Amino acid sequence: MVHDFSRVASTEALVRASEHWQSRHLEEASAAAGSPTKFTIAFSREAGTYGAAIARAVGNRLGWPVYDSELLQRIAEDMGVHRALLESVDEKRASWLSECLESFSSAPAVSEFAYSRRLVETLLSLAAHGDCVIVGRGAAKVLPAATTLRVRIVAPLEYRVEAVSREHGIAREQAAKQVEATDRERRRFMEEHFRLDPTDPANYDLILNAARLSHAECADIVIAALDRLRARPVGSSPSPAAKIQQAG
Fold this sequence. Notes:
Blueprint: H1 7-30, E1 40-45, H2 51-62, E2 66-67, H3 69-77, H4 79-87, H5 91-105, H6 113-129, E3 132-135, H7 139-142, E4 148-154, H8 157-168, H9 172-194, E5 206-209, H10 215-231, H11 240-247
Parallel strand pairs: 1-3, 1-4, 2-3, 4-5
Helix pairs in contact: 2-10, 3-6, 5-6, 8-9
C-alpha cells in the first residue's frame, strides 16, 4: 500500500498537533515545580525499514503524537503554523529554546540558514512540549540527548528492496533504485544541514534491525528503553562499572 500524505491528511494532523501543543502549554502552566521531565523519541531510519510505521506503533502505545518528515517540513515552511507552535511554548521553555537556538545557529555546519533555523526551531519547540515521537529531519542530532531517546531503524539491503517493491507494487530493479536514491537524499540532507553522518551508530541510543524484529517487538524495546531513561536523573548514565555489573 502506498502511503499518500495528502494536504487534507497533513491539515488534520496539524490540527491534532496544535491541540497537543496547547494542552501541553496549559499542563505546564498549572504544574508544580519539579514535575516529571518530558521526553521525546527521535527516529532515524533507512529506506524500506518501515521506520515511520514503527514510530507510529510507539506513538499509539504511548498515546503520543507522531511527527513524520512531511509534517515537520510543513510546519517549518508554514509561518502561521510555525508561529502557533512557538507561541505555545511557555516562558521557562522559551528561554531554554532561545539558548539552544543560539548555540546551534552559531555552528558553521548549518547551511541554508533560513530554512535550517526554522526547522531547528520546530524540532526544539516540539521537544519543549515533550511526550511526542519525531521521525527524520535530523531530530536525533538536533534535540538534547538528556531528554531524547534516539533510535535508528536498519535492515539488510535485500530486505529493504523487497519491502519497497511490495509496498509500492514496483519491480525489484526500480525498488532498488528508489531505496538507493532515498538513502542518498537523506544522507545528503543530514550532511548538508547538520554535518552529520546518519549511519554512524554513535549518534543513537538504540539501533534496531527491522528484518529481525516485528513492529510490535521494536515498539516494546523502544518503550522499555524510554522507561529506563525516565527512571534515572535527567542527563545521567550508568558508570562503566555499573554497566559491567548489570551485564553480569
